[in-house]
């Protein structure tokens, strides 16, 4: 039976406007979750666009630093490169330098993937962390309140790359994914975990993303080639925060910059 995914996209003028919109969204969703249940569990991705957002969240000249309920947050990572936390390629290092060193989050509120360990061990340890923090038993899956994704120009998301084994992993929460096209390993949340989140959104900017985004949303369903198509949230809603370059091949948004699609999967 076909499943309908309601896709909303919001188009912004450029990188700064996009980062600001993402910061607003993080704040809104965190406040909403804290009001409903007393805490917000947030999973973030790496990349240049999230970096701008994290810098805004930590900027004392912006409202976010004071408005964010930092003491009620738990911060997790969607994926990580197999490098130490001090390495320039580390998602954790980028997040720490852009935000964590400047906001009132205690170390015990931040849960990183230990990319310095052998990949399988790093994945097993992070899965154990999730099971402990979410008090999971058996086949239960953690449910993040907010989960932010990016998308590569090859259609990958998290560290689930085209034609890699991570596409087919259904049983584990965290997977050590061999990525031949990058000649490396990555440690990533699996897509069955990602789609359980209460709020899943993509943050995408740049001209190089226009064609793959168009194919992900309006092309033939081929997740082996376009793994971002696997992200079909259980709640039936999916949000894309975009700049004009990334949105160039999508149907034109309305005057407020919002567009909608219904996708059958």
From TrEMBL:
Cited Gene3D superfamilies: 3.40.50.1360
Broad enzyme group: hydrolase
Keyword Metal-binding: no
Organism the protein comes from: Alloacidobacterium dinghuense
One Pfam assignment: Glucosamine_iso
Gene Ontology BP terms: carbohydrate metabolic process; pentose-phosphate shunt
GO terms, molecular function: 6-phosphogluconolactonase activity
Organism taxonomic ancestry: Bacteria, Pseudomonadati, Acidobacteriota, Terriglobia, Terriglobales
Cited SUPFAM superfamilies: NagB/RpiA/CoA transferase-like (SSF100950)
The protein's name in its UniProt record: 6-phosphogluconolactonase
Enzyme nomenclature, EC number: 3.1.1.31
